[in-house]
Amino acid sequence: MRSSSKLNQYWTDLYFHLHYPHGEKITHQMVRVLQLIDKKDRVVVNDVANYLDISHNTASEHVKRMIHKNYIEKKRDLEDERKVILRLTDIGKKVLHENTSLDEDKLNHIFSQMDEVEIELITKAFKLLSERSKSCM
């Protein structure tokens, strides 16, 4: 099995066993929009359309629904007042965390069973993958 296949299997195992219970009903596309806004600076509706490979009108409808659910808000860009920037609300940050992160209580339980060397090894590996992943966008 190739390294990438192994890593994908390990990642899906990790997420399956360690994700937060899903409370809020949210679509996969909404999660992706929340991630985009969280990870990128100054996201506008056109960025959402490009990221999801959908029309501007469809992206605008997604954004409207997410504003209605209080996941995101619109703010005028201070540098260019013609632009409207999308930002996560506190509720949006919470929903994003619960739908994309690993449960910290479960992780802490696992880490409590490891020694410092193991924890450091895992942390360094994930940091390296995180840093290198940013060059793929």
UniProtKB/TrEMBL annotation:
InterPro entries: HTH_MarR-typ, Transc_reg_Sar_Rot_HTH, WH-like_DNA-bd_sf, WH_DNA-bd_sf. Signal peptide: none annotated. Residues 1-131 form the HTH marR-type domain. Keywords: DNA-binding, Transcription, Transcription regulation. It is found in: Cytoplasm. Its main location: cytoplasm. It comes from the Bacteria. One of its GO terms (molecular function) is DNA binding. Pfam families: Staph_reg_Sar_Rot. PANTHER family: TRANSCRIPTIONAL REGULATOR, MARR, TRANSCRIPTIONAL REPRESSOR OF EMRAB OPERON. This is HTH-type transcriptional regulator SarZ.
